[in-house]
Write a structure and sequence with these properties.
Blueprint (H helix, E strand, L loop, with lengths): L1 H5 L16 E6 L15 E7 L3 E5 L2 E5 L3 E5 L17 E7 L15 H9 L4 E3 L1 H12 L6 H17 L3 E3 L11 H17 L6 H7 L4 H12 L3 H19 L4 H7 L5 H12 L3 H12 L1
Antiparallel strand pairs: 1-6, 2-5, 2-6, 3-4, 5-7, 7-8
Helix pairs in contact: 2-4, 3-4, 6-7
Length: 293
């Protein structure tokens, strides 16, 4: 526990290269994105994952994506990296920019009203699907080959198209933004990171409350106020998303997945998975296999 407290994640400082108002990075198998820790920053972050499947954690929301991902994360909204060696994606493109990266008043002009509203919705984290994911993903992929000026215009065009899309889901509607005092940042980061590292094992309320030097009743009130979820609900969702990931890989039996995901009762796992996804684990696996085919 002491190690986890000392190694708490910190605010990430992002500085664009000299002469640039935003950052753009493209990652691949030969150049993987190694920033998989729980972190946050004032910059909005637009991420396109080309293919593959994996887990996304944005604020208190945890879910599983398939066939790539296109997400827009608002300012100071904590999140983890979305790709690693096991996600099977071709590449990952990341654009990071402050809300006023084109000047303090630029997005106040009438023509920018849609993008201004997009930035507001992004405070909850947005995941785009369907034709939007494919069409915009392709535009983000080719930013790599554009000049600085062309890239800027292309990003504005992408933001405008995202602002017009109706094919999106708000991932963290309770807006767990890190616009909190530094002490509160450290506390919620410590809790989330501990769950991320230990969800396969039982985590008692006494254990997690002690980690952040709180009594159990105080911790329960605090966690519910910040995330709009109970701690038990949050941990179960984390485990169920991990189970969803394992079901897609088709390497383990459903019984093995139950225990690998941190559940110690198969009946409870089945019931929880059905409540979370609307189908049994075996139905979920069959659905995924039919999509892949």
């Amino acid at each position: 526990m002491d190690t986890l407290i000392k190694s708490k994640p910190a605010f990430e400082a992002i500085a664009p290269d000299f002469g640039h108002s935003f950052t753009y990075q493209k990652f691949s198998a030969s150049k993987p994105n190694k920033n998989n820790v729980w972190h946050y920053h004032p910059e909005l972050e637009l991420v396109y994952v080309n293919g593959g499947s994996g887990r996304r954690q944005i604020g208190s929301h945890v879910s599983y994506y398939t066939q790539g991902d296109l997400i827009l994360i608002g300012s100071n909204l904590p999140h983890c990296g979305f790709t690693d060696a096991s996600t099977g994606n071709t590449s990952e493109s990341v654009v990071q920019m402050k809300a006023d990266f084109l000047g303090s008043d630029f997005f106040d002009i009438p023509e920018m009203s849609k993008i201004r509203n997009l930035f507001e919705k992004a405070k909850g984290g947005l995941a785009f699907g369907g034709t939007t994911k494919k069409k915009i993903g392709e535009k983000i992929e080719i930013l790599e080959y554009k000049t600085d000026f062309q890239r800027l215009l292309a990003i504005l065009n992408v933001l405008n198209e995202l602002a017009s899309s109706k094919d999106f889901e708000i991932l963290n509607a309770d807006h767990l933004s890190m616009e909190l005092q530094s002490k509160e940042n450290d506390r919620i980061n410590t809790i989330f990171n501990y769950v991320k590292e230990n969800y396969r094992q039982p985590i008692s309320l006494e254990e997690i409350a002690g980690l952040v030097f709180m009594t159990v009743p105080s911790f329960c009130r605090y966690f519910k106020k910040v995330t709009q979820k109970t701690f038990v609900q949050f941990v179960n969702e984390y485990r169920l998303v991990h189970a969803s990931n394992l079901l897609s890989e088709n390497k383990l039996s459903i019984t093995q997945i139950c225990f690998e995901s941190g559940f110690n009762n198969f009946s409870h796992f089945n019931k929880s998975f059905r409540a979370f996804t609307g189908m049994s684990p075996s139905q979920y696996r069959n659905e995924l296999q039919s999509v892949v085919r």
